[in-house]
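Re: Re: ligand-bound prediction request (bumping)

Still looking for help on this. To restate: I need the protein modeled with fe (ii) ion bound, output as structure tokens. Inputs repeated here so nobody has to scroll up.
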Amino acid sequence: MVLICLGLEGTAHSFGAGIVTDDGKVLSNEWDMLKPTHGGIHPREASRHHSDLGPSIIHNALEKAGINYNDINLIAFSRGPGLGPCLRTTATMARTLSLKLDVPLVDVNHCVAHIEIGCLESSFEDPVTVYVSGGNSQVIAYAGGRFRTFGETLDIAIGNMLDVLGRELGMGFPAGPIVEKIAKQGSNYHSLPYSVKGMDLSYSGMLTAAKKLFSEGISIPDICFSVQETAFGMIAEIAERAIAHTKKQELLLTGGVARNNRLTEILEGVSERHGVQFHRVSPSLAGDQGAMIAWNGILQFKAGRTIEISDSQVLPKWRTDEQDILWRA
Ligand code: ATP
Ligand code: FE2
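Reply:
Sorry for the wait, this slipped through. Here it is.
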């Protein structure tokens, strides 16, 4: 008998419901994103978005998968890291469904889910992972029972840097894809802070410097081009060092910023130089969505882990390396 898991994702401004079977088939993956009209994401507005739209997104996911509530064997939810109000709203929906359907509940670390959905898609067994999104920029590898963070941003995440810069330059949200498109028209490189500290990165200086270039009249295409080349070069450097250090044979690119073709090209170059396999998670599974939560729920359930509702309080600061990865042990 196949096992069917419904995964709910709601760590930030997106709410997603994904349905995945234990043989790794994604039956459906529905989501919706709250786009801020001005400024950044407001946690309370995002959580209201999730409570307003969540039930219909779940309904659509069931319909697309061609199943009923009673066919679900397992409920998984993103327990953290993320924005408290958004996490709590999502967890409440997951607990309610688990009780009502009388099926087990599994808590999922959002960052770990981004890695494992990439491994499912690529059949990679043990990659160095570059996980880049609006809230995270990390180079991760499995060692000693956990996903260890080999390097990460010391201040803002790369996606957030692109989004804030885009806002300053008058682009819509999210700005990452717009920056990518406009960067293709740029060709003059303007120097920006290349800030790699050991295995860690820093992007806040680059953001300030890029805004300064704008105030000095440098063209937007040239700014976008320069930002991409510098920011992605920094990631490539630490990814390369992580490969050399761990001697792993696979390089995985995941998270919302994995949709970027230029970053993909640069990391492909890294993997060729080191003779390792490369996979970029496909656009529909790269960003925040429920299928990755459902798949991680299945991995954990099969390794014997479920959670009682009374223990399922959310963990807004749950780090990637704070979970024992039972299914890889
Ligand atoms: P997390 O909670 O994992 O940090 P998130 O809430 O930021 O995730 P994601 O969907 O994983 O959500 O990532 C969204 C980010 O990806 C945004 O910052 C967006 O600008 C960026 N992004 C999307 N497409 C591209 C692209 N083509 N190039 C660069 N950045 C992109
Ligand atoms: Fe994410």
